[in-house]
Amino acid sequence: MTYIITSPLYYVNDKPHLGSTYTTIACDTLARFKRLEGINVIFITGVDEHGQKIQNTAEARNISPKTHCDQIAQTYRNLWSALDISNDRFVRTTDQFHYDLVCQFFERCKSNGDIYMGRQKGWYCVGCEEYKEYPESELNPKCDIHKKELEWRDEENLFFRLSNYQEQIEELISQANYIQPASRRNEIINFVRTGLKDFSISRVSVSWGLSVPGYQNHTFYVWFDALLGYLTGLISGDSSTNIENVSIHGWPNCLHIIGKDILRFHSIYWPAMLISGGFKPPSKIFGHGFLTREGIKMGKTLGNILDPIELLNSYGNDSVRWYLLREFKFGQDGDFQKQRFLDIVNNDLANTIGNLLNRTTSMSRKWFNNSTPYKTSQEYKENKLYSSSLASIAQVRKAIELLEFNTAAENILLLATTANIYLNENKPWSLIKIDQSRDKVAYDIYIVLESTRIVATLLYPILPDLSKRILGQLNLESEIREWSDYLVWGRLGFDQALPNPEPVFEKIEDKEFL
Ligand SMILES: [Zn+2]
């Protein structure tokens, strides 16, 4: 069965920020993990390109909205490629393929009686692309999020009968696994309890949008358009647009990983739309937390935005991926701290993992003819590194399955630390000076090298680059497809040539922008 993982389709109002980078790295790690477990994965990401805000931004830049979108979409593609993101699809909502799908979907909802013409009056935030709940008499209300004055709008819009789905949505959100983490469920349950209201799905004042077929001057509301991008991504490998085919490609076995701010759209509006269109709701929605920087919310006015592109260019993808996944509990808010970033990356990747590999391969080469040690008669299954390895393998698999990336990272690190301690306790550098201890040294070095190989294998979904470099230093094939064979103890050969040791991870240093 196909497992679908999606990041949000990111709004191209601006270049990528650390939050979208975080979401995408998490999606990527899960996608890589599932593939390693032998599951067929479709990992969808992309960009959401319509709406008033983009039109305004492009105008301010004196370029067409399409040119603006092309540029920002390319920035996303470049960043994901530099971060080694393994997405199968990259959806652009300006593609004709997507438009065809939106039209097909709209017709389905319409024939189901869920679309009607109505009048929408209210205070509107362009930033949120959303009507706010202020009475008409309110004087100059502002958006709580954007702190900008709202616009009064009174226009004819097409509406979607969300109110038809009250019971079905209540039923859906009461399911224990549907909204994750569980702490975010109550907020949604409380909102739905107040009664779902129909929402407008078209605009007459926004020209930068997809035209609603049969309704002149109406463009689709950007959320109606963008949410459907997930289905577009799913069938975009097909030769033509046929929305019926989403189930052939695995729908609804889908996990949406999103930021907590867009949970309402995904857990209420989206499933109702899907049911109306004749499809099942997605199986799970995970809303993760937000990142602050040194305890402060990042924003343009504060000038404290940490640019993920600059971070990546300065520190490389291993550092960025490791810090974000290892430092924060996925689901909760996190705080990016410069000193923690430098310390964690240097301690974990350079001192613990890098040093373990470097010193062990060096000793092995020196004492065993530039190779791994020879086989001894001592049974390795009695060794604590053997049991530690098995425990780490089990813990990492369990943790990533639950999206507990920090727990997975900690368990990999624990194995590397245990192996370092083993070396320090057994002191092969002293034993090698005693003739009759050569077998014991061969045994110890092998068992540490094999633990290091398991560390590298377990790192593969989190830090694919570092993992490959370590496996390369052990003279092993560095592309892992399915990993069940690789997680069996004892795959490292005896008397096998080892290349010249090279540091797999250089320590990182403080830089001015950080
Ligand atoms: Zn707003």
Q: Spans with pLDDT under 50 lasting ≥5 residues?
A: none
Strand arrangement within the widest β-sheet reads: 3-2-1-11-12-7
Shape: elongated
How far apart are the first and last residues' alpha carbons, in Å? 43 Å
- Percent strand equals 5-15%
Could you say how many structural domains there are in total? 2
CATH architecture of the largest domain: 3-Layer(aba) Sandwich
Q: Can you say what the CATH homologous superfamily of the largest domain is?
A: HUPs
Largest sheet: 6 strands, parallel
Mean pLDDT: 96
| Secondary structure category | alpha/beta
How much helix, percentage-wise, in residues? Answer: 40-55%
| CATH class membership of the largest domain | Alpha Beta
Count of alpha and pi helical runs: 16
Radius of gyration: 27 Å
DSSP strand count: 15
Reported by name, the CATH topology of the largest domain is Rossmann fold
* Hetero groups: zinc ion
Give the oligomer, counting copies of the same chain as homo and different chains as hetero.
Answer: single chain
